[in-house]
Amino acid sequence: PGFPRTLGQAKALDGICQPDLVISLNIPFETLKDRLSARWVHPASGRVYNMDFNPPHTQGVDDLTGEPLVQREDDKPEAVAARLRKYKDAAKPVIELYKSRGILYSFSGTETNKIWPYVYTLLSSRIPPILSEEEH
Question: Where is the Adenylate kinase active site lid domain (predicted)?
Fold first, then answer.
């Protein structure tokens, strides 16, 4: 989840600036739940492992110390599911607000490398390139 997450935050943002482009990434609930639930940490150092993308060399133990990894309570599948439902309920009015302003661009998928080219194309078309001193 990004920002703003709630209607209150969106209204506070309006007091600072007027967004002219908002990106919404629509990722299936099960994909998010699986990814967040795959996160394990080494409590002493705060090192984070993801069992899918960045697993420890030996399952269940920290690479450097060999100490056990733990799953935070809010990363357990049941807690993640509850967090995602709460987020969806809070974010719905934010999505509707930006959709009504005509500034919402939604992208759907499950993999960053497949979504990013579309997001990049949108941003490239809306943001002028930064020229170096030699190009001026």
Answer: 39-74
- Map residue 16 onto helix, strand or coil: helix
Which tokens in the block code for residue 118? Answer: 């579309």
Q: What does the alpha-carbon distance between residue 69 and residue 49 come to, in Å, rounded to a whole number?
A: 9
pLDDT in tens, 39-78: 999 999 999 999 988 999 999 999 999 999 999 998 898 9
CA distance 47 to 91: 30
Helix (H, G, I), strand (E, B) or coil at 28: coil
| Superfamily of domain 7-37+73-125, CATH level 4 | P-loop containing nucleotide triphosphate hydrolases (3.40.50.300)
User: In this structure, are residues 41 and 69 in contact, taking their beta carbons and an 8 Å threshold?
Assistant: yes
User: CA torsion, points 59, 32, 83, 47, in degrees to nearest 10?
Assistant: 40
Q: Which residues lie closer than 8 Å to 61 by C-beta, 6 or more apart?
A: 67, 68, 69
